[in-house]
Design goal:
Blueprint lengths: L40 H7 L2 H13 L3 E9 L5 E7 L4 E7 L10 E7 L2 E5 L8 E4 L16 H11 L3 E8 L2 E11 H5 L8 H13 L4 E9 L4 E10 L2 E10 L15 E3 H10 L4
Parallel strand pairs: 6-12
Antiparallel strand pairs: 1-2, 1-11, 2-3, 3-4, 4-5, 5-6, 7-8, 8-9, 9-10, 10-11
């Protein structure tokens, strides 16, 4: 199930393709509410301190047991991906609406991962809709992209200290502070410190370097509760300019594992056999 743990720069193909995001809400969640016109005094001043607010956001995010992410962007073949992640009890899911192909006419890929095993939706097995693989043995270090890129974006901005306050904007119907920074990948590669854990750091730097990307402009919209409502990364590399947008919701609400009915689930061996047999008559 290694492929499930990687998403293509941000949503790789698994049994089809992978990515779900802001489609309907695309790059946005609303417009600017006129700078800091609605803020005053010490409160407004404190919210303009990018370093302090983003550090608080990283801490608050790290304390969350669960949240949902909607992701869009990447290359022209990417689609929209809805993701859910929960630490305890472990659960993650990715539902991708991507490019329609001959092998995947619907363009959809759906994966569910639990402590009991990982499930992938399929139309290749007569009489069954899913196949199951054994559970991962390394959940603690699982970089399953069902968490989205929030950890990497917050970490990169905190590590480089490049973020500046842009203004206040509405996202999802609530006020947020908009911060933006430019991350130079060569400089980030040299970073060793508490602002970014080694696993996130090494993964993000590796993906960016392999994509031929030297810089990334990262925007984060942070609510007054120090939780990130939205993020955006714009970068240029081998595939030209790419933009990734994510919106976050349901922090810490507790997620119910969407495990498919047992009578609709095949084993991985049965899935492989069905592929070998080819389309049924």
């Amino acid at each position: 199930m290694q492929a499930v743990r990687k998403i293509r720069k941000f949503a790789v193909p698994v049994v089809g393709s992978l990515v779900l995001a802001v489609g309907l809400t695309a790059c946005g969640g609303g417009g600017t509410s006129g700078g800091d016109a609605k803020k005053s005094g010490a409160s407004a001043s404190q919210r303009k301190d990018a370093g302090a607010v983003l550090a608080a956001a990283a801490k608050k995010t790290g304390e969350q047991n669960s949240y949902r992410t909607r992701q869009s962007g990447g290359s022209s073949e990417d689609g929209v991906t809805d993701m859910a992640w929960q630490r305890t009890p472990f659960f993650s899911s990715m539902r991708v609406h991507g490019k329609k192909t001959k092998d995947n006419p619907s363009g959809e890929t759906y994966l569910v991962d639990t402590a009991d095993g990982a499930y992938t939706k399929t139309d290749k097995i007569p009489g069954k809709d899913w196949f199951k693989m054994d559970p991962s043995s390394d959940k603690k270090s699982d970089r399953s992209r069902s968490r989205g890129l929030l950890t990497e974006f917050l970490g990169a901005l905190n590590a480089t200290g490049s973020a500046k306050w842009i203004g206040t904007e509405q996202v999802g119907g609530r006020p947020t502070d908009h911060f933006q920074g430019t991350v130079t990948i060569a400089e980030l590669a040299k970073y060793q410190g508490p602002a970014m854990d080694k696993e996130s750091h090494d993964w993000y730097v590796d993906v960016m370097q392999k994509g031929g990307k030297e810089q990334a402009v990262i925007d984060l919209w942070v609510g007054e509760d120090d939780l990130v409502a939205k993020s955006r990364e714009v970068s240029s590399g081998k595939k030209g300019q790419e933009q990734i947008v994510e919106e976050y919701s349901d922090y810490g609400t507790g997620l119910k594992a969407e495990v498919p009915p047992a009578d609709r689930v095949a084993t991985f061996d049965e899935y492989i056999q069905a592929l070998a047999n080819g389309p049924s008559a």
